[in-house]
Amino acid sequence: MKNKYDRIQTVFIGGCPRSGTTLLGALLGSGPRCVATPESQFKQTIPADLKVDWSRGMGRDEFLFALKKNFRFRLWGVQPPGFSGGGMMTAPEYRDALLSIVDAYASKEQIPDWTVWIDHTPENILEPLGLMRIFPEAKFLHLLRDPRAVAASLLPLDWGPDTAEHAARFWAQKLAYGLALEKARPDRCMRVYFEDVVKTPEKTLKAVCTFCGIAFNESMLAGKGFTPPAYTRNQHNLIGSAPDPHRLEAWRNRLDSWQIEEIEKIAGGLMELAGYSRAALGERRRRPWGKRLLLGVLPFVSYVKKKRHGFRKKYYGALRHRGADGNDD
After folding, report:
1. Which of 2, 8, 230, 238 is the one with CA 20 to 30 A from 315?
2. Per-residue pLDDT tens for 205-225?
3. Which residues touch 23 (CB under 8 Å, ≥6 apart)?
């Protein structure tokens, strides 16, 4: 019997968090027969946590148990896949199980005729070989953004790096994964600059669509192909509108000169190799006492942010869990 998911195409967008993966997902998801879903870290973390050896397969019952508890899955607001009996899943069967979850989400979003899954999970570039085994047809888009803009976007959040130095190392580490994938599999991975997506969206999207083997449509330019779940809506408040080139240099006003210097000291060489110029900072005096004082209380600020992040996960996870059981929405 013919498998309904045999002709599904998968596009995995990845890169350093806050590089614009959600924006690119919303743009591509606006195309006909495309569905952009919430982030799906569970597709990689569950097999890793269960220490799956695909030569033996993954237990269906173990997968379902882990999936139902998974916070990221709960944010999708859909039911887990139904299996007829337990036993072991092969990699192709795991692909079908994941695509059945996408299918449920597409039905909820009223996209019943979807044929392309747009997945904008940043971690897609971290374990690409595992994803290629499950999705042999997949194409990867490595999204690259100026590390100073990434830092300016990351630092106010209640997760991730707390300092410019940490943000620079975080960006460099994630960049290494993307560059390795580009080098090893240029037929499967394309580098996309966030700045190109924003400044020349039509030209960039046409190139992306050609690489991925999907049809470009002008509807993509509106960027209305994805609505973030409530849990991440505040940090994705620009999703749903067309890219704004005027925001590309916003990091210059959101970071001070000492933070910019710290980022360029650590990641300056990689920045230049990637095509980004260093800022002309000039001579600066010593960091003001107020900013030095802030560095001293940073461990406490970091503790409060992590507590807040944990509370948000617990709140939204429980809310979605009740909604999935039919007790809440």
Report:
1. 238
2. 999 999 999 999 999 999 999
3. 194, 197, 223, 238, 239, 243
Q: Tens of pLDDT along 108-147?
A: 999 999 999 999 999 999 999 999 999 999 999 999 999 9
Contact 197, 13 (CB under 8 A): no
DSSP state of 156: T
Question: Which residues does 297 contact at the CB level (< 8 Å), separation at least 6?
Answer: none
**Residue 143 resides in a domain:** yes
Q: Is residue 55 part of a domain?
A: yes
Going by the DSSP 8-state scheme, the letter that residue 86 receives in this structure is -
CA distances (Å), 245 to each of 120, 217, 241, 250, in order? 21, 21, 12, 10
Asked if residue 7 lies in contact with residue 116, where contact means CB atoms within 8 angstroms, the answer is no
Q: Is residue 219 part of a domain?
A: yes
Nearest to 265 by CA among 156, 154, 167: 167
Mean pLDDT in residue range 183-204: 96
DSSP H/E element including 179: helix 164-184
- 77-112 confidence digits (pLDDT tens): 999 988 767 799 999 999 999 999 999 999 999 999
Residue 62 contacts residue 50 (beta carbons within 8 Å): yes
Dihedral pair phi/psi, residue 190, rounded to 5°: -120, 135
Other C-beta atoms closer than 10 Å to the C-beta of 294 total: 12
CB neighbourhood size of 304 (10 A): 11
| CATH at residue 200 | 3.40.50.300
Cα radius of gyration (the chain):
21
pTM of this structure: 0.86
Q: Helix-strand-coil percent breakdown of the chain, rounded to 5?
A: 55, 10, 35
Q: Is 245 exposed, middle or buried (0-12, 13-18, 19+ CB in 10 A)?
A: exposed
Three-state DSSP state, 299: helix
Contact between 75 and 146 (Cβ < 8 Å): no
Domain count, the chain: 1
CA gap 120, 98 in Å, rounded? 15
Boundaries of domain holding 153: 9-286
Query: Per the domain annotation, does 1 fall within a domain?
Result: no
